[in-house]
Amino acid sequence: MLCAAVVMLVTVAAVVQLGLSRRRLNGRLDHVRQTALVSQGGAAIVEAPGLLERFGGFLAKGPLIGQAEMALIKGQLATAGFNRPGGPAYYVGLKAVLALTAVLADWIWLEAKTVPAPLLMTVGTLLAATLAGWRLPDMVLSRLAKRRRDAIERGLPDALDLLVICGEAGLGLDIAFERVAREMKHAHPELGSELAITAAEMRVLPDRFVALANMADRLKLETLRSLVATLSQTMRYGTPLGQALRVLANEMRRERLTKFEAKAARLPVLITLPMICFILPCVFIVVAGPAALDLINTLGSR
């Protein structure tokens, strides 16, 4: 009985120690990311949480959000470039405030009407306003994340070329990432900030490929996953790094050119409907208008 109690106590202590070490590592990574962003020209983050962040943190602890939803929100914010430690709680608080504001505005509008609205319409509009206020930040965040991913994807081939130069100059992988981040700060600031964060994580994490995998998970780009796989295979099997990166950069440029060609091939289909609705009626008016006026004058003179 005593042995079982001792084993259970040791197990609980090990689990608690593992959780504390992971929490310390995550806190250290957040601090390193903020330092990297400040070095790239970003603004310093104030550590004191505001009212909105505290309100969002209170909601996140309840059954409405949950830890899984908070992890998903954190990933979406990281994809859009918002790496503030209290960002998920602030975002949840913002969504709740917007939902309450939409409900209040809709209620004021319904009360201001001279004719009272039916109960079903009142409940429906209030629910629609709540849903719109709650979902509006998600739509904006999704658009911002897509725009940032596109900007990063445009700069990846140039970054790979610079990585080839740094690798052939004898720089290590973390130093090469840091150097490329400084060079890309003005041409592609989004990519420069991500490379700076990855270089900072490489200096903290015991395995540098975990930092590369974190970058791929943050941005959710297949090209970055290909880059991570290429770098891991290169370091594991000793293949030439410069040659592998050159091939990957050329593949990215060809893929980008293929996307441009696909968009160009869709243009005739996309402009057909505007031509039918707006251009062809104008052409008919210009061509048939004088004849119609002459016909009207001729019939009117009889």
From TrEMBL:
Transmembrane regions = 89-110, 117-136, 269-293
Tell me the organism.
Skermanella aerolata
Q: Where in the cell is it found?
A: Cell membrane
Question: This chain belongs to which protein, by name?
Answer: Type II secretion system protein
Q: Does the keyword tRNA processing apply?
A: no
Entry GO terms, CC: plasma membrane
Q: How does it sit in the membrane?
A: Multi-pass membrane protein
Q: Type II secretion system protein GspF domain location, by residue? A: 160-287
Query: Which PANTHER family does the record match to this protein?
Result: INTEGRAL MEMBRANE PROTEIN-RELATED, PILUS ASSEMBLE PROTEIN
Q: Which gene encodes it?
A: ctpI
What is the top-level taxon of the source organism? Bacteria
Q: Which UniProt keywords apply?
A: Cell membrane, Membrane, Transmembrane, Transmembrane helix
InterPro entries found in the cross-reference section: T2SS_GspF_dom
